[in-house]
């Protein structure tokens, strides 16, 4: 296994983590900004107003994005296991 192979595995791993976490983090960011703007406009400073919608949106997106996350992680693990089985690692 050369340094280039190790670099490829690490870059694929980082890409898989980014692809798997992007939908959830994106929705949390958008919902948080919408709630923050709503609170700034109405001057309602209720603490549960920030958490409940954000958690609900995250769970919905997690249910929707689970196949994407699974396929990303499965593709990465298949690639790494193929490298191990071929004796490259």
List the defining traits of the structure above.
single chain; 89 residues; mainly alpha; 2 helices; elongated; membrane
Helix content: over 70%
Question: Which stretches of 5+ consecutive residues score pLDDT under 50?
Answer: none
Count the strands?
0
Distance between the termini: 5 Å
Average pLDDT figure: 91
Q: What fraction of the residues are assigned to beta strands by DSSP?
A: under 5%
Question: What is the compact description of this entry?
Answer:
With 89 residues, the chain is mainly alpha-helical. It has one domain.
Q: Would you kindly provide a written description of the structure presented here, covering whatever features stand out?
A:
It is a single chain. The protein has 89 residues and is mainly α. It has one domain (14-76). Helix content is 89%, strand content 0%. It has 2 helices and no strands. The chain has helices spanning 3-42, 48-86. It is elongated. The termini are close together. The model has no long low-confidence stretch (mean pLDDT 91). Keywords: Cell membrane, Cell projection, Cilium, Flagellum, Membrane, Transmembrane, Transmembrane helix. It comes from Primorskyibacter flagellatus. The chain crosses the membrane at residues 14-39, 51-70. One of its GO terms (cellular component) is plasma membrane. Belongs to the FliQ/MopD/SpaQ family.
